[in-house]
């Protein structure tokens, strides 16, 4: 029942973004044709049903994919997309352990980075979602891997400003493949 509940809210929140009548004006210029929306829906269906992960992993992965695409194009993240991943993390009960305490200390360090404008709020929300859904230990591995990937890209293209969420997506895929 929990998986159905989460899947239902995931589909509603993602469909809200692509619904023509309720779209924000900034999205109207991005999604003009029906063919573009159809390819996105086909890609979502392929991505959701052919990956060998559980439903919660697929929802978090799709959330990361949507956030990385919006971060690349708009340098912003739509909060509606984050709702299903936050629900999964909050409704999945785990006992508080040292892993969560270390992750919360890391998240407070990220909030300090946000305060000094070294990192965006969307990046920290993505980190929190990964930490809630998996473990903060895996989230720290993902964050460190994303930083190394970004540093390697910064060395080759030093004058280009890179959004951070696509690197989080790539590192999420790498870490989830290496650490099952």
TrEMBL record:
Superkingdom to which the source organism belongs: Bacteria
GO MF assignments: aspartic-type endopeptidase activity
Gene3D superfamilies: 1.20.120.1220
Gene Ontology terms: cellular component: membrane
Domain Prepilin type IV endopeptidase peptidase positions: 59-151
Keywords: Membrane, Transmembrane, Transmembrane helix
Transmembrane parts of this sequence: 6-24, 36-55, 75-93, 100-118, 124-151
Name of this chain's protein: Prepilin type IV endopeptidase peptidase domain-containing protein
